[in-house]
């Protein structure tokens, strides 16, 4: 993956302090918590985050899950939850790094960021590669279709049954994986770079539908586009923060503080601002969501 740099428009301010923009790669080498001569970090990731005072998070700029504000700060349901949990852990700031979904896990495992906080939904294949926190958000999936839903699309089964249908997805996203798991041929899949491009693909007739979480599509809704009800032949899913497999102590500490946050009105206020339900996040476990096929 090409080296990415954190721009001032990609930074998340937390606790009222702005994080300094630094290159993603080569970050650890000049810090006091690295081994002399090797540039390798000493101690655990949790120790490092507390020492440096911030964590780097991978985001996707897909409201309401993640969002870049006009002033360059980063917010959204998952970054806001992650910021609140980390603050409880003694890590007062986070820096957001925008990256495609398919690059999030490879970048995490290559130490380009510390945490994935992008609404990267749990499923079997992802849970085998990284550690997730307990659920932070739970979501449903829908199609964006031309007004009136002329192809009468209500689920993945209808897509698979008609080889002429074209469905737009974000490569590496949960929806891309759901189509593959269902056996929808690649010839029916239209890869698009971002949410707005998915809507434009439907408007231009390059795709019959754009497959994305319901709330994300609601945020993108425009004239001439209709959002279907939640798709019933996709399992309920959700996400937590994503961590490297080796960061077990960080995950344990994070889960402890996430549990405490979930017991407060603050958790419901954070999620409610973005249209999510705190009770829905409390109703499922990591084990249940990691059992989702794909």
TrEMBL record:
SMART domains listed in its UniProt record: PBPb
GO BP, one annotated term: ectoine transmembrane transport
Keywords of the record: Signal
Domain Solute-binding protein family 3/N-terminal: 54-278
Pfam families assigned: SBP_bac_3
Record carries keyword Transferase: no
Protein name: Ectoine/hydroxyectoine ABC transporter substrate-binding protein EhuB
């Amino acid at each position: 993956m090409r080296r990415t740099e954190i721009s001032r428009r990609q930074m998340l301010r937390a606790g009222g302090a702005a994080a300094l923009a630094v290159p993603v790669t080569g970050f650890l080498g000049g810090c006091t918590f690295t081994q002399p001569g090797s540039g390798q970090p000493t101690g655990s990731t949790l120790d490092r985050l507390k020492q440096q005072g911030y964590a780097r998070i991978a985001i996707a700029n897909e409201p309401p899950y993640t969002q870049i504000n006009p002033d360059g700060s980063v917010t959204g349901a998952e970054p806001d939850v992650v910021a609140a949990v980390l603050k409880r852990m003694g890590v007062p700031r986070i820096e957001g790094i925008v990256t495609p979904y398919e690059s999030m896990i490879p970048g995490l495992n290559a130490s380009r960021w510390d945490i994935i906080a992008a609404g990267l939904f749990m499923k079997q294949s992802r849970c085998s590669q990284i550690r997730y926190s307990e659920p932070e958000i739970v979501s449903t999936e829908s199609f964006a279709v031309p007004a009136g839903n002329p192809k009468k699309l209500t689920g993945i089964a209808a897509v698979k049954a008609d080889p002429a249908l074209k469905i737009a997805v974000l490569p590496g996203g949960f929806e891309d994986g759901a189509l593959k798991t269902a056996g929808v041929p690649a010839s029916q899949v239209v890869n698009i770079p971002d949410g707005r491009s998915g809507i434009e693909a439907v408007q231009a007739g390059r795709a019959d539908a754009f497959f994305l979480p319901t709330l994300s599509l609601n945020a993108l809704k425009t004239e001439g586009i209709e959002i279907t009800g939640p798709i019933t032949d996709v399992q309920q899913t959700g996400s937590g923060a994503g961590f490297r497999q080796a960061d077990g102590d960080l995950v344990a500490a994070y889960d402890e503080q996430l549990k405490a946050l979930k017991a407060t009105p603050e958790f419901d206020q954070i999620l409610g601002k973005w249209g999510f339900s705190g009770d829905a996040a409390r109703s499922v476990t990591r084990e249940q969501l990691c059992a989702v096929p794909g």
